[in-house]
Design a protein that fits this description.
alpha/beta, TIM Barrel, 35% helix, binds D-xylitol-5-phosphate, binds zinc ion
């Protein structure tokens, strides 16, 4: 399943571009939220989810790359987010926030960076809907897929299959027509792509369609 990241989109045409990815078969919209502390970049707030909500039926998936995810969660849920993903690096004990998001009837995911030991996710996999294995160090779109990610995806796939097969395995960062096949073969099932979707001269509909084809 493809989750276009709007971080790479032309914000003067955001709604139209999201509609174009939907036409290409996108499964959800990935909203990259950065606070300038957990990552060195500042991106967007819940006002963007509020703006997109009436434009698309696709689920809005919010990736909180922020130091204090609990502070922002309710604002994004009120704005219409369907799922909240936050980082284990800043929330070693995520159970309370997991329960809070689930309590609102929304999906919850845990993300972790390329230098975070995949094994440390095991205690939480049974409680979440999605595990996000970052394939770049977060902060900016357009970075290159870190090759060691493929082995990490395989390790996470084994853990998920054993602990909670319902949990989605998502990857994010440098996913394009050259890397998506490798990530899929290693066991990823949801693919975040920003530059490969919104930077493709063929346009977001064709880019989305081609990435989905390559992921199969
Ligand atoms: C973290 C962000 C980016 C973005 C994807 O930096 O999460 O990884 O979604 O960017 P691309 O697809 O352009 O690498
Ligand atoms: Zn992301």
């Amino acid at each position: 399943m493809l989750a276009p990241s709007i971080l790479a989109a032309d914000f003067s045409r955001l709604g139209d571009l999201v509609t174009l990815t939907e036409a290409g078969g996108a499964d959800r919209v990935h909203v990259d939220v950065m606070d300038g502390h957990f990552v060195p970049n500042l991106s967007m707030g819940s006002v963007v989810v509020k703006g997109l909500r009436p434009v698309t039926r696709l689920p809005l998936e919010v990736h909180l790359m922020v130091e204090a995810p609990a502070r922002f969660t309710d604002g994004f849920l009120k704005a219409g987010a369907d799922s909240i993903i936050f980082h284990l690096e800043v929330m070693p004990d995520p159970i309370e926030l997991i329960r809070h998001v689930r309590g609102h009837g929304k999906k919850v995911g845990l993300a972790f960076n390329p230098d975070y030991d995949v094994k440390r996710t095991e205690p939480f996999l049974a409680d979440i809907d999605l595990a996000l294995c970052m394939t770049v160090f977060p902060g900016f779109g357009g970075q290159a897929y870190i090759p060691e990610s493929t082995g990490r995806i395989r390790e996470l796939r084994r853990l998920i299959d054993r602990v909670n097969p319902r949990c989605e395995l998502e990857v994010d960062g440098g996913i394009d027509q050259r890397t998506i096949g490798e990530a899929a073969a290693a066991g990823a099932t949801v693919f975040v792509a920003g530059t490969a979707v919104f930077g493709d001269p063929a346009g977001p509909t064709a880019a989305t369609r081609e990435l989905i084809r390559l992921a199969k």
